[in-house]
Amino acid sequence: MKFFSKKIIDFSDNAVGLSITDDRVRVVHLEDRKIKGYNSVYVPEGIVRDGEIVDKGKLFKFAEEAFKKARPKKIKNKKVRIALSESKSFLRLISMPQMEEKEIAEAIKWEIEANIPMALDQVYYDWQLVRNTFIEKDQELKVLVLAASKKLVDQYLQILEEFGLEVVGIESETTALTRSLLSEKNVGKTSLIINIDKNKTSFIFAVDNIPCFTSSIPVSEKNVIGAIAKKFNISNQKAEEIERKDGIGSFFEDDALFEAIRPVLDGLILEIQKTIDFYLEGLNYSDAVDDIIICGKLAKSKGMIPYLSRNIGKEVIDGDVRNGMSHSVKDILIINKDESIKYAAAIGLSLWDK
User: N or C: which end of the chain has fewer CB within 10 A?
Assistant: First the structure.
């Protein structure tokens, strides 16, 4: 099964980017370099759990709504490209001795067994030789490998086809986000994307816009909302309203909201610093991290970006999907900037062949 190359089943231009997460179905349709339709539909808790579809009947209703009520007009195209959750796919940069490219296909099987925490016969995998991008040791080959559980992929294929959709492309959420958030300005640099989502925070390191290392931690929007709810003895719904209105509070003065959230934020800062140190000193793929980009549910939280910048000691940049779209899409402002970041994965999927 192909992830990097142009075919998985039968690739079709203008496939719809379909992003299914634990709480949202998002769709984006590009055609003739213009956004023809987009939508985001809330999915109640328990229908999708940690990237796996639990209740396909209920999910169908929300997926159908996403297509039919898309703006500015409904999406009729039934060919889709989907992303697997970062927690359900494995991206690794593997070092191998110099050999002929035709020998790599066989050798990579042994490397996958050693580097991916699943048996080879239980995964679909693909690989891509990466040249002249990473710091090389003794002229080693660098091979980017992406693997995903056959069980999960087959589940998505079967269920979405039951929905009347034709899955023509599958990739990792990591590669979709990288495609939508990075641009030519990031070529020649090492970029770190921090995706703070509902249930986790993911770290994606990319060199020359090629993702090479990912990891995740259980620090999330849910932790922030829970901390607010506990501090003020209110419901999670009320806590969400406070976070949307006031963000993380003020960290320049004595502020009850910030003090409630502070332990979560301090834990996040510590994990970011540890992850950067591991990438630079342990993996040694780059000499430095040049750009830090934030996206996800808490990216727009008032005060979040200044707080991260101050405590990491490096400017944190607000993620903007227009970076990935700027050279391939004419009308990129049909979705406003603050809203568009929520569609980062779906947009990245729809940009795959652009």
Answer: C
